[in-house]
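tmp note - Ribonuclease R
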Amino acid sequence: MGRKSDRGGKKGKQGGKVVDTAQLARKIMSFLDNHFGQEFNAKQIIKKLEIRDSVAKGAVEPTMHKLAAAGSISKSPRNYFASIKEPEFIEGEVDYVNPRFAFIKPDPKHGIEEDIMIKEADLKHALDGDRVRIMVYPTKGSSGRIEGKVLEIVNRVRDEFVGRVEISPRYAFVVPDFKKMHHDIFVHRGDLKGAEHNQKVVVKLSEWREDDKNPTGKVIRVLGKAGEHEVEIHSIMAEFGLPFEYPSGPEEEANAIPEAIPQQEIQSRRDMRDVPTFTIDPVDAKDFDDAISYQVLPNGNYEIGVHIADVTYYVKPKTQLEKEAFDRATSVYLVDRTIPMLPERLSNGLCSLRPNEDKLTFSCVFEMDENADVVKHWIGRTVTHSNRRFAYEEGQENIDNQSGDFYQELTILNDLAKKLRKRRFDKGAVNFETVEVKFKLDEKGKPLGLMVKERKDIHKLIEEFMLLANRTVAEFIYNKDKGKDTFVYRIHDFPDLQRLETFATFAKKFGHDLKISEGAKISKALNQLMDEIVGKPEQNVLEQLAIRSMAKAKYTTEAKGHFGLAFAHYTHFTSPIRRYPDMMVHRLLQHYLDNGKSPDPDPWEEKCVHSSEREKRAADAERASIKYKQVEYMSLAEEKDYEGIVSGVTEWGVYVEITETKCEGLVRVADMNDDYYDFDEKNMRLIGSKTKKMITLGDKVSVRVVNTDIDRRTIDLEFADNGPKQRKRR
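out:
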């Protein structure tokens, strides 16, 4: 009886063993596609594919020759083989994940929605945030994801790092604080700039050859002894590229500006100095951006003026002041200091709406009836005079006690603000009342106490009138020519339903049922949830998770709406002392009030992108400074068991927010010795192998602090029922 032949080349026999040549061919082609631009011979392919069976080894070279003959791969005269597929070349931003691989976020123009995975060996030393040009492999890798290789670093986003020096007799390394920098930086002993062992420094990368595992750098600034308050704050400033001092050029320009307001300038403006006016700000504020005026009109309506410091009168285009303000783009508020956008002479002096001083302002003046309906409004430049400066607490006290300066005006304004607020929420605004932590520090910066800021009616009063002014300015410009005029808007996209559903799943684990649907109903459901969680242990956790599930607000020249505020059009007009976009708005607004034509949007859009990036940098730095103080506070806190709530579950551990202090720490799986725990990613929980004990998001737990690391701004916890452990502090 004759032997059956292998049809279609699918099976091959050698020595009685069968080799699936079709599967082997697919493996070879996939490997070559994912190593585009490289050539391999049969021996190398066998090694790379880890083929150990002798029969399969023997089938590799014949299979490769058949693929080459069919035109599926290419063959060189030396019997080296390569892929013939065309890869895609794109640009994107590195989102570094861990020491083994990174993801690249492709530029939107390429139309690739999925992030591209790059193995560490193919990164060409690209770091988190760098812009890179990459080659995308034609087929997906073994991970099931699109993979690629970095060809070129287009723009290195940072080449300076803060870290701690470790010195040995022959060489030194800087261990970076930045968690996404996974390589220590080699420093020659002669490039230490006098830094001593364990001091904090700023190091600048000088060389990183392709074959070197670690970069080489030079110390450019010695910050001081690790753990000291001033050193750690300076470390944060250097980590985020924040300036340490104001340059002399802009400072000199600011100091040269005359104090007196020219009479001609006063005459060119609406004079509102006789209208009762006051400011309401935090008790420690020095830069007063905004003031409110109030008077009753003969017809019984109210005239409410929102007056904003006219910064652009003093900061002119093409000056050093302007250049520095644009570069900073925002003031940054760390736990113990403000890094201002403008020099102190402007921010705390000329522009600040201090009491009993005439000031140049840009104003929105509203005529409102008792229902808080705007009958009409006026926008333009004014001169004003603040009669009184209120701290929030003082203004609230006058409303509550119905006594003190301007208590009647404050009460009426508060009633109007409540009506504006209710109307806003009725139209679909989302009520995110985030928990803010504030520290009481001694003269050396040591945290003596921690408090949660309370938002009262007086805070909401100011917020509503600032929102009204911002919205009115945006709508005024938009309505001039149906959005065709170039302007700076503050937009907030509609949330992604999939991310909201994920958040709803989290909320359910805390016992809250969030029903997700289209349109304004989302806002209603979110507001209902926010009302439910006020004062509960999970409030801060859920508020933070909700905000993360939302789109990020940003500046743009696109006339889109603001989902969170439920405004068709919105801008930032009310804080030009501390935000550059508000200065942009003031300039464009006056340009249109003077009947100017719409300018080219591209330069304005570039400024919007820059401002949004600077805003993110400021927020990250502010969070880092708060986290540092939280770690320091917990290192000094009483050694006891703390009640907490599980705020995150990962394969490496459980994040717990301590209810009393709002500080978050990590219970590492490696330290949980009562059982071996498996991570259930789908349900965000850990399950004990023996006990079947479950630890899930939202669980109320009791923990103790076992380690605090100020360098890395981390708090290590353990569950209180896990047995005693020696506490460490760094």
